[in-house]
Amino acid sequence: MAKFEVGIYNEQVRQLAREGRRHKDLSGDWADVHYYDVEADDIDGARHKMMRKYPAERGYVIESVDPKY
Predict the structure, then answer these.
(1) Are 34 and 56 in contact (CB under 8 A)?
(2) Cα–Cα distances in Å, from 14 out to 50, 61, 64?
(3) How confident is the model over 11-58, as pLDDT tens digits?
(4) Which residues pair with 4 in a beta bridge?
(5) Phi and psi (nearest 5°) for 61?
(6) Can you give the pLDDT at residue 64?
(7) Helices in 1-69 by DSSP H: which ranges?
(8) pLDDT value, residue 18
(9) Are 69 and 5 in contact (CB under 8 A)?
(10) Ramachandran region of residue 59, left (φ > 0), alpha (ψ -120 to 50) or beta?
(11) For position 15, what pLDDT does the model report?
(12) CA 18 → CA 44, 49, 53, 64, distances in Å?
């Protein structure tokens, strides 16, 4: 398996922060990109693995998926 770095943020938290409000369940730092190391067969596999854990329906956005060398 290859290693990838995946960057994720939460659009709902970003929008609320712009409005000066807070998300009811997530901390404000989710307005910033969080980086995770993921092992997967390929970039699509890394993206799918993180989408299961951080679904778009809950406001999560995958900003980047980069191979780690």
Answers:
(1) no
(2) 19, 11, 17
(3) 999 999 999 999 999 999 999 999 999 999 999 999 999 999 999 999
(4) 38, 67
(5) -125, 125
(6) 98
(7) 11-18, 43-53
(8) 96
(9) no
(10) left
(11) 97
(12) 31, 29, 25, 22
Q: Hunting for tokens 């995946």 — which residue is that?
A: 6
Tokens 């998926």 — which residue?
65
Query: Rounded to whole angstroms, how far apart are CA atoms 14 and 58?
Result: 13
DSSP reduced 3-state for 27: coil
pLDDT of res. 69:
82
Give the E-state strand segments of 1-69 in sequence order: 2-10, 34-40, 60-67
Cα distances (angstroms) measured from residue 43 to each of 3, 31, 48, 52: 9, 24, 9, 14
- Would you state the structure tokens that stand for residue 26, as one six-digit string? 């997530």
Instruction: Name the pairing type of β-strands 2-10 and 34-40.
Output: antiparallel
